[in-house]
């Protein structure tokens, strides 16, 4: 017969049992099994006791009826009931004691897999009997639920599927001595590095799993080798936290964070580019706090098409020094080599090429090659004299220039011709001609040979 009242039993050390019904008796004439409780809720890790009393006919077919075997079981194997005391899943944790028609089954260190219906069976010389009902055991684990956050405080609540009476909870911080709080809820400081767990009063050695804010994340990059442009790269973030942390990836921009890149634990670049180099931060956060970690990403790439500059860029006398500088964006940094067309040997190595005494023999096409271990890129240009023999005018004409830059050159030519015409009327000598190409023809070669033109 079932009862509505619930009682807390602690008959033996470590026992945490909640009886939801008091007793049940069943049987045929002369046979019967009565359970002290048919529904038991117990906390994981604790000890539970199931007790029953039984009856059987004292005589059978004119002879004294004696008990040959009694046992508890939950399952069948090979068509036979399995005695829990012989089941390997209960080895070292179970004990059955019987005396004066009363049998007690004790299970220690309860596991959630122990949840089942336990039945009692009696075998005598005259026959066997098993009740149609047994004891339903529900093994539950205490858990801490993190509730709403109030400014810098969060609410913790100790929960169990068992209906625990009010005032039977205690709280534990960092595995220290339990606090005096006996309520099922507790307010804690948000962002604290503490760990909180709860237990039933009197059974503090069976605490719930602890809850805590995320630990500093562990960030990694895959593949772990050198990152090359165009490859697939994955950044992974993980943090020890309970409740589980959520993740957000950012790319750092000085002291400012850009908009989130993703809210997944992994940040994936299907084809990483040189512009993706930089500092990336992963933030791990749960209801109790947040923390972050930074990982640098250094993308290696072949040299970009070089650019060539000349110094000095103003009018210079023929025979003076001219310095050419080659620059290319590359990672790792590029090395440079200078060549002149139709010559097998390089003219110079290094980023700077200096012609100390510019003469006619220096006229021609040159190329600057930028190279690192990932590739090479060239830029070709031309040097030629367009002024008289006593001076030279340095003009830098790049392939990308438009007509807007050529018009001043044409005007300069018209002015020079007019000046010569006036001078010819006062001086008795042959006029000097100046070559000015108002509309030069530029050479464009496909990558990696990107060309520029220089006129001297």
Can you describe what's shown?
By secondary structure, the chain is mostly beta strands. It folds into 4 domains: 7-140, Immunoglobulin-like (Sandwich); 143-200; 218-300, Immunoglobulins (Immunoglobulin-like, Sandwich); 307-426 and 434-455, Immunoglobulin-like (Sandwich). It has 1 helix and 41 strands. The strands form 12 sheets. Strands 1, 2, 5, 9, 10, 13, 14 and 15 form an 8-stranded mixed sheet that branches. It is elongated, with a radius of gyration of 45 Å. Mean pLDDT is 79; it is low at 1-15, 18-25, 388-412 and 420-456.
Question: What is the strand and helix layout of this fold?
Answer:
Blueprint: E1 7-9, E2 17-19, E3 24-26, E4 32-35, E5 39-43, E6 48-55, E7 59-60, E8 63-64, E9 67-77, E10 80-83, E11 94-99, E12 102-107, E13 116-124, E14 127-130, E15 135-140, E16 143-150, E17 153-159, E18 169-173, E19 185-189, E20 196-200, E21 218-222, E22 227-228, E23 233-238, E24 246-253, E25 256-257, E26 266-269, E27 278-286, E28 289-297, E29 299-300, E30 307-311, E31 316-317, E32 322-327, E33 335-340, E34 348-349, E35 352-355, E36 364-372, E37 375-383, E38 391-392, E39 395-397, H1 403-424, E40 449-451, E41 453-455
Topology-level CATH name of the largest domain: Immunoglobulin-like
User: What is the second-level CATH architecture of the largest domain?
Assistant: Sandwich
Main sheet: strands, sense, barrel: 8 strands, mixed
Query: What is the CATH superfamily of the largest domain?
Result: Immunoglobulins
Provide the low-confidence segments as ranges. Answer: 1-15, 18-25, 388-412, 420-456
Q: Report the C-alpha radius of gyration, rounded.
A: 45 Å
Count the domains.
4
Chain-averaged pLDDT? 79
Strand tally is 41
CATH class type of the largest domain: Mainly Beta
Number of helices: 1
Class based on secondary structure composition and strand pairing: mainly beta
Q: What is the general shape?
A: elongated
Strand content: over 45%
The CA-CA distance between the termini, in Å, is 113 Å
Overall helicity: under 10%
């Amino acid at each position: 017969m079932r009862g509505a009242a619930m009682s807390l039993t602690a008959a033996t050390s470590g026992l945490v049992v909640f009886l939801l019904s008091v007793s049940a008796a069943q049987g045929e004439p002369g046979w019967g099994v009565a359970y002290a409780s048919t529904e038991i809720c117990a906390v994981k890790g604790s000890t539970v006791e199931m007790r029953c009393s039984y009856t059987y006919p004292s005589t059978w077919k004119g002879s004294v009826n004696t008990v040959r075997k009694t046992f508890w079981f939950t399952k069948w194997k090979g068509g036979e009931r399995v005695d829990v005391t012989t089941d390997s899943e209960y080895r070292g944790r179970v004990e059955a004691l019987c005396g004066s028609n009363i049998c007690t089954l004790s299970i220690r260190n309860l596991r959630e897999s122990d949840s089942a219906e336990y039945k009692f069976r009696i075998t005598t010389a005259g026959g066997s009997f098993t009740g149609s009902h047994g004891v339903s055991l529900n093994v539950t684990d205490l858990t801490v639920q993190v509730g709403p956050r109030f400014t810098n405080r969060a609410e913790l609540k100790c929960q169990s599927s068992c209906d625990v009476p009010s005032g039977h909870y205690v709280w534990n911080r960092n595995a220290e001595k339990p606090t005096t709080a006996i309520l099922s809820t507790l307010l804690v400081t948000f962002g604290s590095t503490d760990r909180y767990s709860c237990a039933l009063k009197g059974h503090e050695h069976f605490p719930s799993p602890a809850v805590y804010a995320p630990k500093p994340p562990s960030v990694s990059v895959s593949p772990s080798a050198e990152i090359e442009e165009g490859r697939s790269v994955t950044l992974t973030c993980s943090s020890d936290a309970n409740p589980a942390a959520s993740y957000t990836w950012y790319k750092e921009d000085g002291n400012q964070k850009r908009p989130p890149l993703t809210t997944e634990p992994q940040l994936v670049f299907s084809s990483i580019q040189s512009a993706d180099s930089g500092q990336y931060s992963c933030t791990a956060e749960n209801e109790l706090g947040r923390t972050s970690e930074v990982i640098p990403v250094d993308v290696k790439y072949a040299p970009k098409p070089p650019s060539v500059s000349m110094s000095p860029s103003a009018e210079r006398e023929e025979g003076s020094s001219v310095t050419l500088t080659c620059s290319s964006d590359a990672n790792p940094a590029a090395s440079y080599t200078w060549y002149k067309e139709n010559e097998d040997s390089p003219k110079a190595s290094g980023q700077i090429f200096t012609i100390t005494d510019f003469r006619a023999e220096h006229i021609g096409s040159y190329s600057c090659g930028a190279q690192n271990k990932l590739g090479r890129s060239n830029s070709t240009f031309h040097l030629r004299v367009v002024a008289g023999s006593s001076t030279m005018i340095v003009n830098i004409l790049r392939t990308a220039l438009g007509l807007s830059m050529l018009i001043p050159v044409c005007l300069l030519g018209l002015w020079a011709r007019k000046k010569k015409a006036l001078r010819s009327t006062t001086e008795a000598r042959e006029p000097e001609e100046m070559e000015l190409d108002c509309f030069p023809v530029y050479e464009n070669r496909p990558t990696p040979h990107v060309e520029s033109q220089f006129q001297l």
